[in-house]
Design a protein that fits this description.
By secondary structure, the chain is an all-alpha fold. The chain is 45% helix and 0% strand. Helix 2 packs across helix 5 and helix 4 crosses helix 5 (106-119).
């Protein structure tokens, strides 16, 4: 019985370490175009910073965009975890940022993150 419980506990820990939503970059491109392009573009500054190459980049480091002081000073590097938290609630990642968008759908967030990661070659 103890062995079975130990195996179950180990399997549970491994399962919890796996991201809840593994994204699909193809769906992510469509979601990006629907959800993000009002403010963002991949290769030019719009009302917000360009997003090609954002995955793996430190927050506030696009030299052509003027960020809030909070984003410029943030010790955040964009990866699956930080982007997922950011798209869920930007204030939970960097207090005092200028982005108010939220994306409640975890699958859509995962897809967009997969797309941004693919564009960054990571």
């Amino acid at each position: 019985m103890k062995t079975t419980l130990a195996i179950f506990a180990g399997a549970l820990c491994v399962t919890l370490a796996i991201p809840a939503s593994v994204g699909d970059a193809g769906r992510g491109q469509n979601a990006f175009e629907r959800r993000c392009t009002g403010c963002h573009a991949l290769d030019k500054i719009k009302g917000a910073p360009r997003l090609r190459g954002v995955y793996g980049r430190q927050a506030g480091k696009d030299p052509e965009f003027i960020y809030s002081d909070a984003v410029k000073a943030a010790p955040v590097t964009w990866d699956e975890s930080t982007l997922d938290r950011w798209l869920t609630d930007t204030e939970s990642v960097i207090t005092g940022n200028d982005m108010s968008f939220r994306l409640d759908n975890a699958d859509e967030r995962g897809d967009i993150i997969a797309y941004l990661k693919q564009l960054s070659g990571k």
